[in-house]
Amino acid sequence: MAKNDNIRGVEFILIGAHGDGVVGTSLTKFTDIAVNTLTFQGGEATTEPIKTENNDSYLTIVTGGTETVAEFDLYGVTGEQAVMLLGGEYDASTKTYKAPKQIPNKYLSVVIQSEEVAGTKKRIEMPYAVCTAKYSGNMTKGELLKIHVKAIANTPVSSSGVEGSPYEIKTIDA
Question: What is the pTM of this model?
Answer without folding.
Answer: 0.89
